Amino acid sequence: MTGASAVFRNNRAVLALVALIAVTAVWGVTFVQVKDAVEIYPLFAFLAVRFAIATATLAVPAATRIRSLGRSGLGAGALLGLLLAAGYALQTAGLERTTVSSTGFITGMYVVLTPVIALMLLRSRIGAAAWVGVALSTAGLAMLAGIHAGSAAGDLLVLAGAGVYSLQIVLMERYAPRFDALAFTLVEMLAACAGLGVVALAAGDLGMPHGATVWGALLVTGVFASALAFLVQTWAQRRTSATRTALAFAMEPVFAALFGYTLAGDRLGPLGWGGAAAIMAGIVLAEPAASRALLSGVVSRRGSPRRSRARRRRDRRHPPA
């Protein structure tokens, strides 16, 4: 019986890992789709409609659960949703100005930046491997900035977006265990949609999307790369470790480079690919350290794991005001 249980747990972990890699493949291919779409349809309008589709996708199964969040859950979900909106806005604005491959590799630096954010916010201790990863990835970013295929301004916008993603990841580690995942994700999507919609309206850009290129990108990013991707992540992280999840996400820039090369005609050259390789090496070094830093920071804030589970049970029975 014990052996059978171990096999079952291992199979679930493998399935979770495969699901996470599938999510990163979807994220990788959407870089190409989004770059084509925002050449036709305004940036903030595209993002607002994307998150409106994501909200509609989750609305029916999650609507009845929102009351369980309480005011603190609604506030936390709204905050993370606005951070998500800011990250996507910066990333997509950068994607307009640089290559798909550069965007994918620089976006992957969110995991390298995560331990730095954790150090500042959670007082986590960061190991030497994480700092070596930061150094390698920074060198790789400098190499990517030296090629002519992209744009230094675009690369910096994508890097700023990666920084916002890092902050969102750190805060998610703190808030996610306290609240219903489906309801929390719905509030995130709704807040992102509202924030981006206000900007699009103020700019006078919000109009009816048109054309197969734009609608195809909106449906894929709204349903699969936003609503379902975040749900798959929540489901998978109950079945596999944070470190394995982080390593799976390291595949995102690889898929972005692959699809950028095959679908968008990206040609980075030796210097650019050398920079991409340095960024990937930094990510692989830093990701396990980032996971440990987040875990130690969250546990130290909440106390022992047993006390944390007790607190979560109390929070579910009596949501914070």
Description:
The protein is mainly alpha-helical and 321 residues long. It has one domain. Helix content is 82%, strand content 0%. The chain is globular, with a radius of gyration of 20 Å. The model is unreliable at 301-312 (pLDDT under 50).
Mean pLDDT: 77
Spell the H/E element sequence: HHHHHHHHHHHHH
User: How many domains comprise the coordinates?
Assistant: 1
Total number of beta strands: 0
* Uncertain ranges: 301-312
Can you give the helix content as a percent range? over 70%
Main beta sheet strand tally, sense and closure: none
Radius of gyration, taken over Cα atoms and rounded to an integer in Å: 20 Å
Kindly name the structural category.
Answer: mainly alpha
- Please, what is the oligomeric state? single chain
Key structural traits:
321 residues, mainly alpha
Q: What's the structural blueprint in terms of helices and strands?
A:
Layout: H1 2-37, H2 43-62, H3 70-97, H4 100-107, H5 110-122, H6 128-145, H7 152-175, H8 181-202, H9 212-236, H10 242-249, H11 251-263, H12 269-302, H13 305-317
Helix pairs in contact: 1-9, 1-10, 1-11, 2-8, 2-9, 3-7, 3-8, 4-7, 4-11, 4-12, 5-7, 5-12, 6-12, 8-9, 10-12
